[in-house]
Amino acid sequence: MEKLFKKLESLTLDSEEYYPAILPEMAEEGLFLPLNSGGFVEFHEKLIQLASHEHGVGLGVGIMAQINIAGELLKKSSKSGHKMSQQVLDEIQAGRHVVSMGVSEPGWKGRLSNIKSVLKNVDGKNIIDVEKSFLTNGIHAKTFLVVVKSEEAGEYKLVLLPKDHPNLIVTKFSLPFAKEATHCKISCKNLEIEQEYILDVPYKKYAENLRLSEMLSLAAIFTGFGIYLLEKIRGNDELMGHIKKEKDRPKRYLDSKILLDLLRARVLELSAIKDHNPDIELKKYFPYGTETVSELFLNNIINIFSIDLVRSLSEDIGLFLMRDPLNEFYIHQAIKRELGVKTS
User: Fold this and answer.
1) Which of 110, 166, 171, 219 has the fewest C-beta atoms lying within 10 Å of its C-beta?
2) Mean pLDDT, to the nearest integer, of 327-342?
3) Helices (H), the chain
4) Rg, the chain, Cα only
């Protein structure tokens, strides 16, 4: 990863320009290998290293979205013989193509049944109406991969949508953290799409497992972020002096280091399980335990200092303080399974 980090240190760009600038080096360092022959243990080791550097959290979020969702779906599609999926996948692995996944839309509340984007057949033509509200990597994407409901088949389809299509409206927006992972909204009405842009992959079958895989990668990113925070604290005499002022603070600080070691070990343990059986249902292991350890780490650091001081060290903490309704839903489902209550 040395070449990648040297390139990162040499750049002086707006945060949102780092991802395309560093993409070839990320590909060269093997960060896209899970889309070919690589495993998640190696991927998450690299993701931890990346997130422990300046700009690494946002870059990690961008890669996470490419690998776990869009990339995995393209990989499944290419195995079924879909030529366009294979072409796009090859370009992603070479660091020449960014695909942005579009599932979320206004009012969907994390449920596929609420999706309004639709694929319909009109006089023998494939017509789509799409409105997607949160597409990671959206600004630098060449292609969007969107989930739509097929009126004809009554199931959820995946459509590759070129960003430069003249009838597609792309609206940029920014989050106050992890800015290297850009975001946008997209919409279109009565847009005709050729059959070759439609993937024959049952999205509903894979949706939950792909999301849980992404959450494991997020835990790897958090591990790297924790390492980054502790290194910034260690390099600041005033902050280290603050730790020494109160009797319980050194113990909390040491506990924080131990928690990161535990978190890293758990991430790699689950990654090894996933590598051994790529089709395993991750919900058997969820909640992973990484959620609790991450929360304990954050509470320790915030209690030693303050949330405002931690934000001043890195605004990326906002990513890990954000509550995701879909994650909460999966935890609720896991609790019901544990208690023997029927889940939907």
Assistant:
1) 166
2) 68
3) 2-10, 18-28, 40-51, 56-65, 72-79, 83-93, 203-234, 237-245, 249-276, 290-304, 307-313, 317-321, 325-338
4) 21
Distance CA 89, CA 95 (A): 10
Residue ranges of domains in the chain: 2-93, 99-199, 204-336
- DSSP codes, 59-111: HHHHHHHIIIIIIHHHHHHHHTT-HHHHHHHHHHHTT---EEEE---TT-TT-
Check whether 344 has a pLDDT greater than 60: no
Q: CATH homologous superfamily of domain 99-199?
A: Butyryl-CoA Dehydrogenase, subunit A, domain 2 (2.40.110.10)
Q: Is residue 186 classed as helix, strand or coil in its secondary structure? A: strand
d(CA 120, CA 128): 6
For position 343, what pLDDT does the model report?
59
pLDDT of residue 341: 66
Both tokens of residue 225?
A: 């972020």
Tell me: the pLDDT tens digits for 106-124? 999 888 999 999 999 999 9
- The continuous run of DSSP H or E covering 171 comes out as strand 169-173
8 Å CB contact between 92 and 74: yes
Instruction: For residue 210, give both structure tokens.
Output: 């792909």
Report the alpha-carbon distance of residue 304 to residue 13 in Å, rounded: 33
Neighbours of 229 (CB within 10 A): 21
Question: Are 252 and 300 spatial neighbours (Cβ–Cβ below 8 Å)?
Answer: yes
The partner residues of 184 in beta bridges, in order of sequence, read: 135, 172
Q: Would you state the structure tokens that stand for residue 2, as one six-digit string?
A: 């040395």
Pairing outcome for strands 143-150 and 156-162: antiparallel
